[in-house]
């Protein structure tokens, strides 16, 4: 075969250079589209959540999953109070004085504790799950005002809903590992060895207030306090109800459905549940 002329070689090189430039351009466009799609997805900063539900509804099971998946902090009212008291902060000293006298910690102190966590807890930079607060409409309004001052707002108010009688059977059989908070159930989720934590081998306990009489009082108080709060968040269109009588995996999938739909989609529920929560006549 005769050798290629220099002119033809130059032409081929020019063609190859153009093709390489075209490929580089296409790759850059694809990368730009991928980044655009990525940036359009909800970020964890959008995950400012209130998780509501009566004692035993499953908040302690679902909140850690939300925290892990979205890298947000879990602000449980009782834990915050204990932490502030242990650290001997000004808010902690005020709260301890009130609790020692048998009083209820004021809304102002609770809002101050939440604000302190949002400002000082690095886990809260990406969002938060608020558990156990607000319990009244006044608290909800104070929370909204505090967030507005931070140029933020709540994104989701998720309520775990379950029949009171089912809760009684759940709670009265609950066993707890005090050190870790791991929970078991005598019937539904028994430990491998009776009254023994599966992981540490340490003893499990049944809390003194995990009895039918105490629970029914707590449930009555919960319903009286939170019904107005639920209506408050329903008006803002961030409330969604989840049927918490399902097994935990199904509840988790429904919660994910709320977040993936940006809080704009209803979670499927039975007609009886819809009637109970006043969304169907």
UniProtKB/TrEMBL annotation:
One of the protein's GO biological processes: ADP biosynthetic process
Every Adenylate kinase active site lid domain range: 174-209
Subcellular location: Cytoplasm, Cytosol; Mitochondrion intermembrane space
Pfam families in UniProt: ADK (PF00406), ADK_lid (PF05191)
Top-level EC class: transferase
GO CC, any one term: cytosol
Identification of the protein by name: Adenylate kinase
Naturally occurring in which organism (per UniProt): Aureobasidium subglaciale (strain EXF-2481) (Aureobasidium pullulans var. subglaciale)
Phylogenetic classification of the source organism: Eukaryota, Fungi, Dikarya, Ascomycota, Pezizomycotina
